[in-house]
Amino acid sequence: MRAPQERQARLEDVAKAAGVSRSTASRVISGSGPASATARDRVHSAVRMLGYRPDQAARSLVNRSGFRVVLAVVGTSARVLDDPYVHRAVAAAATAAMPYEVGVSLRWLPRDAPRLDRMLDDRTVRGVVLFNTTEAALDGVPSAFRGRVVSIGIGSRMVPSFDVDNGGGAAAVLEHLYRAGRRRIAMVAGPAWMPCARRPVEAYRDLVNSAGLPVRLVAGDFSAASGRRATGTVLDRWPDTDAVFGINDATAFGALAALRDAGRQVPADVAVAGFDDIGYAALSAPALTTATHPVERIVATAVEAVLTQGGVPSSRVFPSTLVRRDSA
Amino acid sequence: MRAPQERQARLEDVAKAAGVSRSTASRVISGSGPASATARDRVHSAVRMLGYRPDQAARSLVNRSGFRVVLAVVGTSARVLDDPYVHRAVAAAATAAMPYEVGVSLRWLPRDAPRLDRMLDDRTVRGVVLFNTTEAALDGVPSAFRGRVVSIGIGSRMVPSFDVDNGGGAAAVLEHLYRAGRRRIAMVAGPAWMPCARRPVEAYRDLVNSAGLPVRLVAGDFSAASGRRATGTVLDRWPDTDAVFGINDATAFGALAALRDAGRQVPADVAVAGFDDIGYAALSAPALTTATHPVERIVATAVEAVLTQGGVPSSRVFPSTLVRRDSA
DNA sequence: ATGAAAGCGCTAACAG
DNA sequence: CTGTTAGCGCTTTCAT
Description:
Two copies of one chain form a homodimer.
Chain A: H1 11-18, H2 22-30, H3 37-50, H4 56-63, E1 68-75, H5 84-97, E2 103-110, H6 117-120, E3 125-131, H7 135-139, E4 149-152, E5 162-164, H8 166-179, E6 185-189, H9 198-211, E7 217-219, H10 224-237, E8 243-246, H11 249-261, E9 271-273, E10 290-291, H12 295-307, E11 316-318, E12 322-323
Parallel strand pairs in A: 1-2, 1-3, 3-4, 5-11, 6-7, 6-8, 8-9
Antiparallel strand pairs in A: 10-12
Helix pairs in contact in A: 1-2, 1-3, 2-3, 5-12, 8-9, 10-11
The first copy, chain A, binds a DNA duplex through α2 and α4.
């Protein structure tokens, strides 16, 4: 309802309109400190009347609070930032942070030296969202920063975790393969150092152990190229493999390519399944069987947790469900 | 070289160390206003000595400059933000903006009412990068904001443009199809309202006109689903089509799926080509022939242009080159 | 060319 | 519960 061409209302304008002091107005608006019910009402309606929006720069200055969220991706090289999964996450974060009037930055955190403290004592940084984090990186979070760091992946006492139930999702995929009669199932895993790739591997071990199947495990790096390479290795070492489970969809696409190169029919000769259910999964030839990964919701929740200093954020696991298509 | 556990140096510390006043130090550091050579040297070395970094919040407050870059994507619905192309762009922007200590926000701009002014008088916004913009949206940029708005796509006198040479890239792809003997080439275009999809269509018209080929043009919306649908339409209307050119790779993947459904061999019966050279282009069956689109470089250049208020940014066109694979 | 002084808009003691 | 006062760190007139 504010006249369009006027100068932005300041706190002082609100206070004047409400007939209170700046301090009272500030207390009401920021929700910290006491205020009478009447003062509260009058300030709130003045805010609405004037279309007042607090100046974030001024707030940052006095609170030393920072005005951007950093997505810190742990990895062995800066190329981890090229991953479509990371891209989706950044877009989701930038969208989720929009209403808070804070921006998002993207940064590679070297696995060998995940120096989080340097990032956290940067006054421009309001919070950090960790990706693919390791125990070492989590241990490097000083307790003074509790609540300003969250993790998409494993967490710690200090750092709440927001993650997909990739153990459950992987189990669902593997069970599907098993029920379809597959008995010589290979898995292309992620890098061994990556904690978030562990639960799917555990799900795989659980299945092969309990069903008495052979273990056929090869490491990849989440990329399609590595899926292709690793699947080549699988076919060399265990030519009678009848299913390949990729740690993610990109890996599975690489598997499809390798099987095509080798002249194997999918799913007739070899079934293939992935994880994530990215857009292209419905378009590959054959369309990819996989499990869902609600990246957007997870990231949005994590970003809001780090931005909402109010409630202490608590960890949360997001379900993953099987998506049956043609490849398995 | 600064001791790690000390409080961040302020401008006052620098001034003291350099033996000058805060004003002089400020002038030297921000590079505006006069300063003697000696003062300059002393301030610069004090900065280095103390590891001084200006407090962006304080700067924002006094300069009213803003501390985030908004990527504004024009489209008919908020789902335009789901596009992988947009995701890559956001990630690239967040990376490019990192050293400037500013974050990135992502926002949908309704095609019907691209209200840019609301965004530009938001004090938290340092600059805006437009995506898929229309002439109407560009006309809505007040001249007061010259230099604070750049466009990935078409530009205007007020708004510099950074874009791939998609006309040239499309021409290269089409020429490749023609040289391979294709004479009944269909194109799946983008939405008619989208200016950035026009030049490839012009390239298509140029080829069919000059070579006397039939015009087979169907609209899509950049999605794989639309590519699949549109290719179905093409096959219905012109069953003897021997090539399909998609406005982007996603569209081309949809075309591959449609042709598979229809039992056509690619490239034997029908050649398929796309545009963008995204990661999966090398993995589809068959691998997709396409043209490059250096999104990361384009976005990084645009973001730096909007952040570097110094030089008036000038428009720039980035080359696109043919990538021959198996589908055409 | 340089320094003193006055804010940018907000929050947080501290009295009342 | 409320108002007064003093800054947060920086830039920028305005004298000198």
